[in-house]
Model the fold of this input.
Amino acid sequence: MNNFLRLTGSIACSIALLLAAGCGGNGTKSSGSALASGSSNGTPLVTPSAPTPASTPPTTSDNSALSAVWANDGGDKVTRDELRSSTGKDVRNGLWDGSTIKLLGARNEVINFNLVLEAAKAGVNEVSVSISNLIGPGGAALRYAPRTAANMYDWSSTEIELFYVRYLQIKGISYFGFGSLAGWGDAALPQRARCPGMMQPDPHKQPTGTDCSFAERPIANRYVPDIAVPLELTAKFNVASGANQSIWADIYIPKAAPPGTYTGTVTIYEHGVATRNVPVSLSVRNFTLPDAPASHTMLFASVQDLDSRFGSRQAALAAYRNELRVAHRHKIAVIGDNFDTEWSAGKPDANWLPYLDGSGFSAASGYAGPGMGTAQDVFSIGTYGGLTHDTTQDVFTSRFNNWATWFEKNAPGVERFVYLCDEIYCKDSKPTLTTQLEWWQAISGAGRHLQTLATVGLIDAPSALSFPTSTWEMSGGNSHNQNGTSAVDQAAIDALLAQSPTRKPYYYNGARPGVGSMATEDDGVAMREAPWGQYKKRLARYFIWEGTYFDDYQQGRGKYDVFSSAETFGPNAEHMHNSHSYGLIGGSMSNGNGVLFYPGTDVLFPSNSYGLPGPIVSLRLKHWRRGVQDVDYLTLAHAIDPAAVDAIVQKIVPRVMWEVQCYSTKEDCSYTYEGASWSSNPDDWEAARAQLAHIIDGQ
Done:
């Protein structure tokens, strides 16, 4: 893929997109996952390397140097300097009652918790953490079995994963993600990024009290959790004095798990001695989430992004294959380039085939978790314009026919489309977008049925051309100086769908206040919210422009240490400056934009290389998965009680996407004074999930 064709979805970070009708559907191959049981199926229990503690916790050991241990679901991001429990704050929440971690989940779901270890008085060295198997009805076990770096992407022996969380310092407020870096934009920021005295009595009036220094913003220079390093790679760690350390846990509940209560214990060791036991209680509900998620997703990630980090194309290819598996386990579909095969070949590179037929996600390949045996549900042809750039009509037609024929014969259940052009390149693409669409309509062969995609303005889309894709601004319908309102955006979508009912609306990236952003300093619930908005507006797929943007070639910053820099999109140091109110900014400086994976091996910055043959996951990706799984709950519950589910959705996400009203429908609809409508408290979201579970199984 030519880099110049990937100008980035972040240039217009608040765009959504519409995909034209054509062939479609999802692969539905599925397979169950093994569940360990000491009595029913003969599968031996796998024990962790550290001693497995008893289920009933003893009192805290007197020789523990940690000042406090507590838990949450991770949606409330605890910055590294916070000592909430040690300073007397009430840390109880919907998951933590003060002594026990209480979880709820369905079969074929990954649930999580975040353990916070505080060291208020002095640093604590040589800390380690383990978790016992969670034992349920009839001796069924959810296993914890530590793995080596070489088999980290084989989940056949374990349902539980633990992660050592690393932090990134927020030195400036992101340009992308929050609408604008201006006083009137403060309302759109997360609460901890706003000026403390900000007042907004009316969403259509500019907020006051927004002229503060960056240092006054609660998020300023704080270290935010985001990098989930497999705990096996940091078996012993230190907790600095006056700081905390988070340990994240993912627990997959297999399809075969009998419903009921599963119990176990997290054990904390200091200098090899068990000093604290934390009981865990998991209620497995009597329903199963689908292998193919109801919230369809799309995340771009390229093999080329990995080359310089993993040291060779061979290592990068292996890492990318593991990245596809990790993304699938997070219910996220990856699109990218065609490995080492040119798009003109008319078929996917052989490396793609196991993921398009599901065998790459099979038990035989060491995969276990959501979507086991299920093919990836989408494939992008010529991503960012690589198939159609500088073609003639004959070449264009031949390529469409070749790709369509291959998919009809080999992967008919996979949704596919040709990516015609991207953002500003759609304005002057060669051939022009209008020409490409005319050529597409003139095809008489199989290629006429291929879906097409281009990111262009919705209101500008000429209806006569059966426009394949469209985009719109989240906070209003302003386009080429045409005033608009949220009603105009909705009317444009309604008109297109009425003209062609099989069209599929996609949403592209996103920024507050219409949708939660991928900015590192945004709330933990931000990425969880995005699928809820997608569900509410009946959007077929949510598309994020990049997941492995390790080389900021667009801003001239180049390759940077992603483990040490929260800034992922922005100019090099000489073009950055410290602003009075927003900290270190410059150009389009943004935190986390384009990076949802971290490289498991990094030969450019070896001090932060873990020697993994694949990716390390961001917590933001895990929050996105939580929202995707929430939509599975919404979909199952809606089939039973639509009115109740609609009421829950309206309560949790009152105004999303183009429902957010702009400043003035008569004067300017390009911005809003309004803040996000949803709660930043994870307990509100978890309470809604519990309500949905009750609708589904009656418990």
In short: Residues 619-638 form the longest helix (20 residues).
